[in-house]
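Posting this for the archive.
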Amino acid sequence: YVTVSSASLGINSYMTLPLVSKDTVNPVCSTISTCQSFSAIYPGWEIYKFSTTVMLPPANDWVISYSAAVRNMAIKNINASSGIYLEAKLDNTAINSNAQWAGKVNYYLIENTSMSVPLQVIDADGDSVDVRLIAPREYTSTTNISYQPGYSVTNPFGGGYCTINPTTHTLDMLAPAPGVYTLAFAIDEYRNGVQI
C-alpha cells in the first residue's frame, strides 16, 4: 500500500493502488516470461505500474511513500534484509509540477568498464533540478540502510567509482566486480535559486 500524509493537516492514510501495467526492464528480454525464471540465462527485472487519482486539500508538507520489508537478497553493497522505502514530497499550495525521470533507470555495467548514463530528469515548469546520490532507506523510513563493509554512498561498488557529473548531467560509473548493487537518488527542485 501507499501512505499519504500531511502533518499540518493531521492526515495519515493508506491506499491500495490498482495494478495498471507490468513490463520487463532488461532489453535482452523480448517478453516478461523470457527472464522471470530464476534459471533464465539472462537476469530479468520487472517494473510494475500502479496508479490512481487522489484529491488532496492544499498543504505544503504532503509525503507520499511506499515501503516493503523485502528486497533482493543478492544485493552486495547494502543490508538487503532492511527492506525498501520510497518517498515523494508535495507542496500543492502553489502551482508546480514534480521533476520526473525521463526513462527507466536500470542499467547493466560491464565489469571494469567505465559507463556514463545520462540523468534525464525533466521538469515541466523549467525549474532547475539537482540529482544526488543518497543512502537507501530502511522500510521503516526513519533510518538509512547500513552498507556492507567496504561500501558506502560514495563507494557503492566497493571500488571503482560512481559520481554525478554536474556539467554533463551524467552518472559516471565503473564497477570492479560483478554483482547486484543498489543506488539511491534524491531529486531536488529549485526555482530562481530557491529550493521548492
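The CA atoms of residues 136 and 184 lie 5 Å apart. The mean pLDDT is 85.
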